[in-house]
Hints:
63% of the residues lie in helices and 7% in strands. The protein is mostly helical. A two-stranded antiparallel sheet has the order 1-2.
Amino acid sequence: xxxxxxxxxxxxxxxxxxxxxxxxxxxxxxDSIGYIHLANGLVAGCGFARAEFGHCLxxxxxxxxxxxxxxxxxPSMRAALAVQAMLxxxxxxxxxxxxxxxxxxTGAIIVAASLVLMFLP
Length: 121
């Protein structure tokens, strides 16, 4: 059980480590910018549309609203990324507990380690 907890903790620390860096430019890939704009539109009262210069643009038809809603729920992008890191570590832990029940502790450790490697940022 200690090895499983260590793997989950390492996963959390690896996911939180980039938050030490200033700013968020390291976290914004071209597609991420679109989600951030949609989250800003939600906060500005534009619904699922971007807000630019105080005006609401046309509603988004390509992206689903889940991640923009997630981003809009937090006061900053850094807070959203921290919660996302914790949810990722929790997902690894839950998957490992499921594997432990059905396969055993060795299987749980293998599942947790493989998920950490698969979903590294």
